[in-house]
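Replying to the earlier thread about multi-chain prediction with a worked example.

Input:
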Amino acid sequence: MDPRLHFVTLATRDLDGARRFYSDGFGWEPQLDVPDEIIFYPVGPGLLLGLFEADKFAQDAAGAQPAEPGGVTLSYNVPSEVEVQPLVDRLVAAGGLVVKPVQASAFGGIVHAMVRDPNGVVWEIGYNPLWSVRADGSVELMPPS
Amino acid sequence: MDPRLHFVTLATRDLDGARRFYSDGFGWEPQLDVPDEIIFYPVGPGLLLGLFEADKFAQDAAGAQPAEPGGVTLSYNVPSEVEVQPLVDRLVAAGGLVVKPVQASAFGGIVHAMVRDPNGVVWEIGYNPLWSVRADGSVELMPPS
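Result:
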């Protein structure tokens, strides 16, 4: 099995709040927006983020899932330390809530913040000098020496 | 902001159970495995899946997160309908629990199952004839006509 992730789908009570957070905060463009049902954003090669209306999500998951996301963090890395706070500010202006203000993380050199989207999805916004993407798409993780 | 997702990080109470599920069930190889802390699997270009020990996860998220993943589904698409059940069987043999047996989904032509990993992460294993990845990495979603 090719190691791949094709969709990340999140229970979303407030689709309008989600649209505002992702389209206005991150500045992303939906690939597909089905009112009262689901919004898809492209978030990488072969990868879609789906914000799925919470009741329909629960029904599709055969009731095996709570109605609010938790126990998961999605990370977005910015290219420099000074870009963390401005993105956090834009996300807050678009309905996000800071759950961890910008700070040095416990791991070497990382500066990050955590922002909760209007539906409970926690995003880590970070500058991570140990992380880079090679030309072939593989991720380089350089542990602190 | 480039629309990207760089890490998906999941609260993981049982790292050994997770390793078994992903390495033996999906057959993936960890990129980094730090005992009692975190296991990273590459799951796409520029994308890592992190299974982060639950207490450390909660601490890193500043207590803003429950200790078990929920309200999120991760999807893995297989190339043909007949490959869904065998993958589900391998995941179950590696500690997964079927929360939705293989069946036609509510959406046109999709055949899928949902399998909970040993730490509460729900995976959708699906054959989706409406979904494909173009040469440039963008996802084609063909709505039913």
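The helical segments of chain A are 15-26, 54-60, 84-93.

Feel free to reuse this layout for your own posts.
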